[in-house]
Write a structure and sequence with these properties.
The complex is a heterodimer of chains A (136) and B (67). With 136 residues, chain A is an alpha+beta fold. Chain A has helices at 7-16, 35-40, 93-135, and strands at residues 30-32, 47-53, 58-64, 72-77. Classes of the chains: A alpha+beta (136), B mainly alpha (67).
Chain lengths: 136, 67
């Protein structure tokens, strides 16, 4: 026999050892193919079962209160809730004013260029007249 | 008895199948599967979770096409 071996202790340890039982995770919904199937589903007295319809967006809940009461049957429609979209970033008044100013500045600069061109042309014509007069 | 024979027997006469194979007392004239399950629930022979588990087995790939 092994030293320090206590068969009673070992027995007790085995008895109180945590049992490794594999528990299945159960869905809270019972899937059904129609409302009629949910209505006919057997439910024990004092119990409530929730169903998810596979074919349409409905959830049902059947409750059996007692032997003497009618079963209660509730039908819920699933509605998709749209997530609110982020509001578009609006341009502030300053930005539009700056744009307008820039456009006006461009217009003014193009007008100045045209004025300079006209001035140059006029100057050229005057020079031609003066030059002709001198040569004649 | 193979699985298909068993399924056919359950489908044809569920009350007889249960009484013969599992010695469960089912009142005469009760042959609708849902009514039988309701009776078993009412008499405490099965629990709601057992029924739920069994009913969800039809979604298992192993039993596809049988029910």
């Amino acid at each position: 026999m092994l030293p320090n071996y206590n068969p009673y202790l070992m027995q007790n340890q085995q008895q109180y050892a945590p049992q490794m039982v594999q528990q299945q995770t159960q869905s809270p919904f019972i899937t059904v193919r129609s409302e009629a199937e949910a209505r006919n589903y057997p439910v024990a007295y004092g119990n409530s079962v929730t169903f998810k319809d596979e074919t349409s967006p409905y959830v049902y809940c059947k409750t059996m209160f007692s032997q003497f009461d009618k079963p209660s049957f509730e039908k819920y429609r699933l509605v998709k809730e749209d997530t609110p979209e982020e509001p578009e970033k609006k341009e502030c008044g300053c930005d539009s004013l700056k744009k307008q100013m820039l456009e006006i500045q461009l217009d003014i600069s193009s007008i100045w260029k045209e004025i300079d061109l006209i001035k140059d042309r006029k100057k050229g014509k005057n020079d031609e007249h003066n030059g002709n007069g001198k040569s004649n | 008895m193979n699985i298909m024979e068993m399924v056919n027997q359950i489908k044809q006469n569920p009350a007889t199948f249960l009484m013969q194979n599992y010695h469960i007392q089912i009142p005469q004239g009760l042959n609708d599967p849902n009514q039988i399950i309701q009776h078993l629930l009412n008499t405490g022979q099965v629990s709601q979770s057992q029924v739920n588990n069994a009913m969800q087995m039809r979604n298992h790939p192993m039993f596809k096409g049988l029910f």
